[in-house]
Design goal:
The complex is a heterotrimer of chains A (556), B (385) and C (293).
Chain A (H helix, E strand, L loop, with lengths): L1 H32 L7 H19 L3 H23 L4 H21 L9 E2 L7 H19 L2 H11 L1 H5 L5 H27 L1 E2 L6 H14 L5 H16 L7 H15 L3 H6 L15 H11 L4 E12 L2 E12 L3 E5 L6 H8 L7 E6 L2 E2 L5 H8 E3 L12 H8 L8 H6 L2 H20 L15 H14 L4 E5 L7 H16 L3 E6 L2 H7 L2 E6 L2 E6 L1 H6 L1 H12 L1
Parallel strand pairs in A: 5-10, 5-11, 8-9, 9-10
Antiparallel strand pairs in A: 1-2, 3-4, 3-6, 6-7, 11-12
Chain B lengths: L2 H16 L7 E7 L6 H20 L8 E7 L4 H14 L4 E3 L4 H14 L2 E4 L14 E3 L4 H16 L4 E6 L3 H16 L4 E7 L7 H10 L3 E5 L2 H13 L6 E3 L7 H6 L7 E4 L8 H14 L5 H18 L7 H11 L4 E4 L2 E7 L10 E4 L3 E6 L2 E4 L4
Parallel strand pairs in B: 1-2, 1-3, 3-4, 4-5, 6-7, 6-8, 8-9, 9-10
Antiparallel strand pairs in B: 10-14, 11-12, 12-13, 14-15
Helix pairs in contact in B: 2-11, 3-4, 5-6
Chain C lengths: L1 H29 L6 H18 L4 H30 L4 H22 L15 E4 L2 E4 H23 L1 H11 L1 H6 L4 H27 L7 H15 L4 H22 L3 H16 L14
């Protein structure tokens, strides 16, 4: 007992530091999990530490309240700078957050209230073991719940493919801002905890090196699961203590560990220790009311789903679309054909909100789409697939499809945290519906596989199922048979007809004539940015202009 | 208290290991930044401490016991300083601790010592408020507020200064607190400041600030900087044709100043408790022994750390050790304020700190500063003529 | 005073540009933010110091020696670390994190070998000479730095524009895969680029070590931050941008220190960087890339 007493007296601060570093690693794990590399977390930690210490020193607030404020303050800052900063991606985001961190550090250096470079000293000891344990447990639980929810799936989808995530109806900007803000809050609380057991804070503790330290811990442990940041921070906090005998060369080991992990354990230590993933347990659910609901919605369909009216688009001096007008009627299969470079995909990008037209009007079910963000348009009932398939490769099939249901799952954050019955029920329904959609395309038996493991044709089908999961009224298919052999094409035709028969409208782009002629009810022909013909397959086939402009060349 | 058997066992073990010591060794903890950015100061501190301990042990130790140093690297980081302190206190069970190197680290480690009731002895912590931490915190580093008023007054008198420019490092606790004192002293002595310029750690280009200073045409440049930066500032100032003399604080006190600046620092006024050319025998011994052992010139950090060990030794000499760690640490704390020595930094004794809130604080250095003027690349004592 | 400040700005800007040159080159060709560039810069400085003090080489011989040493260091990093990562097709942030590790190792090695204190070149070998034009003081060393920065920049641009290697490099910068399909030995050119960029960093280290006469293990860190600011200002991967960005940042910093407040120097540098990233992510002078949906 006495030995333990001595041990604890000696190493309690070290153990506290491990806890705080775990929180910091989790804070950056959160932003990384939706694909953001932010180096601002050291600065957020600093903001939390300063706010907390000042409240304790000057106003004598109770510590629990101090911790709350220390979380709230950086979260507010993150909210304010998040909107502009998070528009940047990849390296640029890293650099912008690094610059923000420097601005925070220099500000703390020059303010009177922060004590300038001398920092704040005499901060009373207020952090106790249970504070750290409780907050760490709460954070872990919250993040764990988040990970298994619509939000966690949305994060993963954003990380894998931002555009595809948008088109699944996910409000990407809001999710990023949420991760950034929540990360800032966790870092801020960690900062206040640290300040209240080290008696002293100064600006130099929150600079670039510290941001890198936090990042290193997370990367070392691995970002694939929550155990990663925990392991990484524990190792990197304890390692220097174990390496005391190396003296001057001690930091070298840190550097070497970093390189070796990046080189040989690309997914971090935690992933290396895990057994290879077995099939995830995904048992089919029961009810399938959503399907019935979709059918009802389809029945109320107005006659026109999508109306393109005098739409023009140019990139710089290049006019891609000029005065394009056509109407996609409800309930059928509509085709848009034209040679390469005619502007077909641009039409899709305009309709889904990825691009804004330079003129004209696009109406969906009588509603003008001008100015609507892609995720809003998706939520109205317009879903698409891509010519070069864009599935979320590292997610399971089931998760891929469930991402599509994002906006139909409307449990709140509290329900999520409490794991309430409503929340569980909603998740179960979504899972059942996802399995149902997978079985429509014949992939239900592979629901637990990672999407990357699928064959090309199966990936196409998965993309269909995922698009259908958004419960669209119209499905936009961008060259669905690209790269397929005749047998596959025939099978896919049947698939598309089946989708139509379930009450969805289909609008597709293709330049495989035989496929389009055999499948579509009506066809529009685009050439050099203009519609040169519109009508039934027979009318198109006999249209001399089409033959001259398109078929003639294609056949030759 | 059940600590006793363990500590006896430990001391017995130590005695067995070192062999031949008649009484138990006196364990002193040393926490210094031996790696990282503050290492250049921490290593000087450790060198001074080791030199003094070896000298004392060579002369037979203290009341028959040898000093045993337990040296740990605190990396100049506050968490590390706390960890090292705790290790020294609870695991190595030392009598007292010298260090840490930076004021920042002392702010973090001091409270640990205070609540564990063990002396924390700073040799290079000059920041305000260090000894506010509590009654167990001691330092022999002289505060700038004791030195700078005399320095500035002497320089003003010598050069008939009407106005000055100020430059300081604004991201470093040491140079910033030096600046705060300078600012107050200049205000008290009613000397106008033409411009106040700053730089940050790692800056090596001061030309923009110096060009601006030169434009203000000051009679002197007040500089709260560390020696290396000061030397670069002087060199670049002369390169820009700025001829005004410099007035510096504690940070100037290093032979580095001349190694780098050569004669660019001529006429500079420095106030300090130590200089390598102070002819007092204690200092001459120190400088010679240091050069012999480490092959380089000592600096003020080494000198103050060296003196700290002698101060501790003096207190230990007057303390009857019981073998009970708690009472021995307490006795040592009681003995320290009575110590007065004549060391490498001149006559020294402690004075009780005046704390902000009137609570009993620790102990500051009571030492008369010497004012030096740099002439011929050397610190020469300024006598006012 | 303005003339002197402008000269100060020119020297500081050239220093930044010289450093950013290799930094931006690596990004342009390898698409890697090489955060060990600061440490390579430091290593170049120490290499020259070692050659000058241990082997008593003259400065003109130590400079290429240091360049060679840094270059080999860069090559080593590319072969041992970046190449396997490329082979694995690692996400672009992974190599950046690996280079952070390289930086830590080099810095710590330098401190272990040479100690933490500031080292200097011996007085005798410094190019002496300074003169006054009107109010402006000029040192020979400053002229050398500006001249070398511009000369290296010119040389690099000339190689990139005019030579077959340059064309190949530009092709790689556009698309390594396409370049490979065209029969360009992409790996070899990655190695060459890493070598050249690190050598340039080493030269910058020596010149700056000479100018400010202060060499420390940590000297790479502040300039790395400035280098990041420069290549973002100038447009990442843009060689001319490195020069323009360097001069721009140097001028902004010097003028801020000279006419606003010296406390603002760094705040301005990073505040500016922050703003520019938000308003023009591809840099002040870089071309705006059309993002494809």
């Amino acid at each position: 007992m006495e030995a333990f007493g001595d041990f604890w007296s000696t190493y309690s601060t070290l153990v506290y530091s491990v806890g705080v570093h775990m929180l910091l690693a989790l804070s950056i794990w959160l932003t990384l999990s939706c694909g953001l590399l932010s180096l601002a977390n050291a600065a957020f930690m600093g903001i939390g530490a300063y706010v907390g210490a000042l409240l304790t020193l000057n106003l004598g607030w109770p510590f629990e309240l101090v911790l709350l404020a220390a979380g709230a303050a950086p979260a507010l800052v993150a909210l304010v700078i998040g909107a502009p900063v998070l528009r940047l991606s990849g390296v640029y985001l890293a650099m912008a957050t690094l610059a923000f961190g420097e601005v925070v550090r220099v500000t703390a250096l020059n303010l009177e209230i922060t004590g300038g470079p001398e920092g704040l000293n005499g901060i009373p000891l207020a952090t106790s073991g249970w504070h750290i344990v409780a907050i760490l447990a709460l954070t872990l639980y919250g993040l764990h719940r988040l990970r298994r929810s619509r939000v966690g799936r949305a994060f993963e989808a954003i990380k894998e493919d931002e555009v595809a995530a948008r088109l699944m109806g996910i409000d990407v900007d809001r999710h990023k801002l949420f991760a950034f803000t929540l990360g800032a809050m966790i870092a801020g609380v960690a900062g206040a905890l640290n300040a209240h057991f080290t008696f002293f804070i100064s600006p130099r503790e929150y600079g670039f090196e510290n941001a890198v330290d936090i990042l290193t811990m997370t990367v070392l442990g691995g970002t694939g699961n929550l155990a990663g940041p925990l392991m990484g921070s524990a190792i990197l906090t304890l390692l220097p203590e174990l390496l005391r005998f190396l003296h001057d060369y001690r930091p070298m080991v840190n550097g070497a560990v970093l390189i070796l992990v990046v080189l040989f354990l690309p997914k971090g230590i935690s992933a290396a220790l895990r057994r290879p993933p077995s099939q995830r347990e995904d048992t089919p659910g029961t009810a399938s009311t959503a399907a019935a609901q979709a059918a009802v919605e389809a029945a109320e369909e107005p006659a026109t789903v999508l109306a393109i009216q005098q739409v023009g688009k140019h990139f710089g001096g290049l006019q891609v679309l000029e005065d394009v007008s056509f109407i996609v009627p409800a309930g059928g299969i509509y085709g848009l054909i034209g040679p390469n470079g005619a502007g077909k995909t641009t039409v899709f990008n305009l309709a889904t909100g990825l691009l804004a037209p330079n003129g004209g009007r696009i109406e969906f079910a009588g509603r003008d789409l001008a100015g609507l963000a892609p995720h809003r348009i998706t939520r109205l009932g317009l879903a698409r697939t891509f010519q070069n398939i864009r599935i979320f490769g590292e997610m399971s099939l089931l998760e891929n499809v469930m991402v599509g249901m994002h906006h139909h799952l409307d449990y709140g954050p509290l329900a999520l945290l409490a794991n309430s019955r409503a929340c569980r029920a909603a998740e179960a329904r979504a899972r059942a519906r996802a399995l149902e959609l997978l079985s429509w395309v014949g992939l239900a038996h592979k629901a637990g596989m990672e999407a990357d493991e699928l064959s090309y044709g199966d990936q196409r089908k998965l993309e269909f199922a995922r698009a259908l999961a958004t419960e669209p009224r119209i499905l936009l298919l961008d060259e669905p048979v690209a790269g397929m052999n005749p047998a596959e094409k025939t099978a896919l035709m049947a698939e598309i007809r089946a989708i139509r028969d379930r009450g969805y409208s289909v609008f597709l782009i293709e330049h495989d004539m035989r496929f389009v002629m055999g499948l579509c009810d009506r066809i529009a022909v685009l050439n050099f940015g203009r519609i040169i013909a519109e009508g039934t397959p027979e009318e198109i086939r006999d249209n001399p202009e089409v033959i001259e402009a398109y078929l003639g060349r294609e056949e030759a | 208290m059940k600590l006793k058997p363990t500590s006896l066992l430990l001391t017995a073990l130590c005695a067995g290991l070192t062999g031949g010591a008649t009484a138990a060794d006196l364990k002193i903890g040393v926490a210094e930044a031996l790696t990282g950015g503050a290492a250049q100061y921490g290593v000087s501190n450790r060198n001074g401490i080791q030199l003094a301990a070896e000298e004392i042990n060579a002369k037979g130790g203290i009341n028959g016991s040898k000093l045993q140093l337990v040296v740990e690297d605190e990396q100049g980081k506050k968490e590390e300083a706390i960890n090292v302190y705790k290790k020294l206190i609870f695991q190595d069970k030392v009598l007292m601790i010298i260090g840490p190197t930076l004021s920042n680290s002392m702010f973090a480690a001091g409270p640990v010592a205070n609540s564990a009731k063990i002396v924390a002895f700073g040799t290079s912590n000059t920041a305000n408020g260090i000894t506010d931490v509590g009654p167990w915190v001691f330092r022999n580093s002289v505060m700038e507020s004791d030195v700078l008023p005399v320095t500035v007054a002497s320089a003003v008198k010598h050069y008939k200064i009407k106005q000055v420019a100020v430059i300081y490092g604004n991201d470093d606790a040491f140079t910033k607190s030096g600046y705060d004192v300078f600012k107050q002293v200049l205000a008290e002595q009613k000397i106008p400041v033409t411009t106040t310029e700053t730089y940050v750690k790692g800056d090596v280009d001061f030309k923009a600030q110096l060009t601006k200073i030169k434009a203000g045409n000051p009679d002197a440049v007040v500089c709260s900087c560390l020696a290396e930066e000061a030397a670069n500032i002087m060199l670049q100032a002369r390169g820009l044709g700025l001829k005004a003399p410099f007035i510096g604080g504690n940070g100037f006190n290093s032979p580095k100043l001349f190694e780098i600046s050569k004669l660019a620092g001529e006429g500079t006024f420095v106030g300090s408790p130590w200089s390598n050319s102070n002819p007092a025998p204690a200092n001459k011994n120190f400088v010679t022994a240091y050069k012999q052992k480490y092959g380089s010139e000592p600096n003020q950090f080494a000198a103050q750390a060296y003196d700290a060990v002698y101060i501790a030794a003096e207190a230990l000499k007057a303390t009857k050790l019981s073998g009970n760690l708690d009472t021995d640490r307490e006795a040592l704390k009681a003995a320290l304020p009575k110590v007065s020595i004549n060391g490498a930094t001149g006559p020294f004794k402690f004075r009780p700190a005046k704390t902000k809130d009137g609570k009993p604080g620790g102990w500051d250095a009571e030492q008369k500063p010497f004012i030096y003027m740099i002439q011929g690349g050397k610190f020469t004592l300024y006598t006012g003529k | 005073m303005l003339e002197q400040q402008l000269l100060n700005a020119l020297t500081l800007g050239s220093v930044y540009a010289l450093f950013a040159l290799g930094f931006t080159l690596v990004f342009g060709v390898l698409a890697v933010i090489n955060l060990s560039h600061g440490a390579v810069f430091m290593a170049g400085s120490y290499a020259a110091l070692f050659l000058v003090t241990r082997f008593e080489l003259p400065l003109w011989a130590a400079l290429p020696g240091a360049a060679l040493f840094s270059g080999l260091l860069g090559l080593l990093v590319d072969v041992l670390i970046l190449k396997p990562l490329r082979a694995r097709n690692a996400p672009h942030l992974i190599p950046m994190i690996a280079t952070i590790g390289v930086g830590i190792i080099l810095t710590s090695a330098a401190q272990g070998l040479f100690g933490a204190e500031i080292r200097r070149f011996p007085e005798e070998i410094l190019p002496a000479g300074e003169f006054t034009v009107g109010e402006v003081h000029v040192r020979a060393l400053e002229i050398a730095i500006v001249a070398i920065a511009f000369a290296l920049m010119g040389l690099l641009l000339w190689v990139l524009r005019g030579s077959q290697t340059g064309r190949a490099l530009r092709a790689i910068a556009e698309s390594p895969k396409a370049a490979w399909l065209l029969g360009i030995n992409v790996e070899r050119l990655f190695h060459v680029t890493s070598f050249v960029a690190a050598a340039l960093g080493g030269v910058a280290g020596v010149l700056i070590g000479l100018d400010f006469n202060a060499i420390t293990p940590q000297m790479g860190q502040p300039i790395l931050h400035k280098g990041i600011a420069v290549i973002i200002l100038g447009g990442m991967g843009d060689i001319r941008g490195a020069l323009i960005g360097g001069l721009f940042l140097g001028t902004a910093e010097v003028l801020a220190k000279g006419y606003l407040s010296s406390q603002m120097g760094d705040a301005i540098a990073f505040g500016l960087l922050f703003l520019i990233l938000l308003l023009r992510p591809s840099g002040l002078f870089g071309r705006v890339l059309e993002r494809k949906a």
